[in-house]
Amino acid sequence: MNTPTPTPTGRRRDHDGETYVELVRTFHAPIEDVWAAVTESDRLARWIGTWTGDPAEGRVRFQMTFEGDEMPGEAFQIDECVPPHLLRITTSMPYDGEKPEHWLLRIDLSETDGVTTLTFAQNVPDPAMAEGVGPGWDYYLDRMVAAETGADPAAIDFDDYHPAFADHYRKAFG
């Protein structure tokens, strides 16, 4: 099976005084199924990583599994969770020393006539970050689409996304 040539899909959006890279994907699936794909550890493992901990405590430890073995786990604070419609997370990067960088993640889901729309966003406090963040999320969300449609996420090659998409994001956030 050939994988179509990816194109950059992210755009600049503002939410609550923050600038975000925002990307949209649609799924011919019930909203509860797409919610499970972004919140259940075993479903996340197919396209991005896993988490451990107890979400009822308001935090989990997230481990990206396609970034190499040396990638440390990240603390994810669950700021708001309204299943199956929205999830707000603040991440903390453990490799930033005593002053870890915090990123805000937003996931919004809606369903119309059996089609669920996922809107994902990550804040970019420095607009220059968008040229790395945008291609990264295009890559991972395309992996999610592959995983959820029965295709092989391993067929999605990050080299097709970065640095090829950087100019799109540089222009959108410049």
From TrEMBL:
Matches recorded under InterPro entries: ASHA1/2-like_C, START-like_dom_sf
Name of a matching Pfam family:
AHSA1
Boundaries of every Activator of Hsp90 ATPase homologue 1/2-like C-terminal domain copy = 29-146
Family per UniProt? Belongs to the AHA1 family.
Protein name from the UniProt record: Activator of Hsp90 ATPase homologue 1/2-like C-terminal domain-containing protein
User: What is the native source organism of this protein?
Assistant: Nocardioides humi
